[in-house]
Amino acid sequence: MSADAVTLDLLREARETVRSSPLGVINTPMIPWCQTTLPLNINCNIHIKLENMQRTSFKIRGVANQFARRTKGGRFVTMSAGNYGKSFAYASKHYGSRGKVVMPETAPMSRSILIQSFGVEVERVPTSSLMNVVNRCVQEDNMTFLHSYDDLDLIAGHALGMEVLEVQSEPDVVVVCCGGGGLLAGVAAAIKLSGCDKTRIYGVEPEGACTMYKSFIEKKPVGMDTKSIASGLAPPFARLPYELCQRYVEAIVLVSDEEIKAAVSALYRSGLVVEPSGSAAFAAIVNNKIPELEGKGVVCILSGGNIGKDELANFPD
């Protein structure tokens, strides 16, 4: 499947599928930065898309579109550090499907327990073994693999850029976190295909898990050994998201783990519970990683609130 398969009609159809999904996907609020107590040292008009308030996580959008196009009651396997796994487990329970989530050993144990609470099996393995275990489940257990980021239905379901445009008809800049690139690709495609040719879209990755950044440099999807506090932004490389990001994204910028930790704490002090992976876009803005924001209309997407008390205890007050 190539980037040409992602059309405006496809995204509109997916949006209606997601909106009418029995999984209860919500249109998350978008609020002006000036109506929060968040720090800002740039003179610009920023809106924050509170996708951290989404049911399970932003991944429920793509999962809703995936499950709507699969046989009800099937046997599915996936790999995830948490966000996709939680949404996958929630959908599996709703649709009466048997599911299994293969998780990296580095993922917080609290996320494994949460996923298991939906009745889905979890297997924790070294990151380098994730795909091998998934392939074993497909071959030996006759399960169907649902990809957590490199999947057309998933990316189309993530086209929440259309919701952004309902509030900001033509933003100057949109900033989105990037892991496998499914969310960034979906948002960017929706905004650009809707006619916002001048909008600059930036992806944000941790310095220790910058696969899309390296892929942009190499001009092809590449992988790397990743290490970051933002475990949800540390997947292997992905082909279709890379192609879409190459076409529609201005650039990938990097933030350090320390900047991500500070972002999580700043958001929490302002009453917003956002996990490290979901805080990357915010971290990029407050640390002046995005060029030419002065006087611009900016949208920052906070993409996940899956963080437990055990994890929050590790962040500065």
From TrEMBL:
Lyase recorded as keyword: yes
Pfam families attached to this UniProt entry: PALP
GO molecular function: L-serine ammonia-lyase activity; threonine deaminase activity
Gene3D superfamilies in the cross-refs: 3.40.50.1100
Cofactor (UniProt): pyridoxal 5'-phosphate
Keywords, ordered alphabetically: Lyase, Pyridoxal phosphate
Occurrences of domain Tryptophan synthase beta chain-like PALP (ranges): 24-304
GO terms for biological process, alphabetical: isoleucine biosynthetic process; L-serine catabolic process; L-threonine catabolic process
UniProt xrefs under PANTHER family: L-SERINE AMMONIA-LYASE, THREONINE DEHYDRATASE, MITOCHONDRIAL-RELATED
Protein name per its UniProtKB record: L-serine deaminase
